[in-house]
Amino acid sequence: MSTVRRLFVCINQKSGVGEDVAKALQKELKIQNLKKLLSSGEKQQVRIQTCNCLDLCKQCKKGPGAALIVYPEGTAYGKVRPADAAELVARHLGLGQVVERLLLRDE
Question: Under CATH, which architecture does the 2-102 domain have?
């Protein structure tokens, strides 16, 4: 059985950082060979998708980075910059570890 994980990246910022983050994540998935992987014996595909709004501006403060959510687990990250893509892919997708410094918490 195959499952799909999706990273939804907000592109609703004037700076265009969301598009840059999405491109950097795509690039890292290829570099780290994690676009398709096995997890607990299951094939898993990872897709990067852009969206207009994740309704996270309050937590993200429309800062210099983008907001993104990883599904199906629903982990929300904020202030993500293209330079964070390698760490997000390696730690969250590769090792299953939350990247605490970028994590958005309910306030």
Answer: 3-Layer(aba) Sandwich (3.40)
Q: What one-character-per-residue DSSP string does 31-92 give?
A: HTT-SEEEETTEEEEEEEEEES--S-HHHHTT-SSEEEEEETTTEEEEEE-GGGHHHIIIII
- Tens of pLDDT, residue by residue over 29-70, are 999 888 776 556 667 789 999 998 887 776 666 567 899 999
Which spans in 40-88 are helix H? 57-60, 85-87
Predicted TM-score (pTM) of this structure? 0.87
* The pair of three-digit structure tokens given for residue 32, joined into one six-digit string: 């780290």
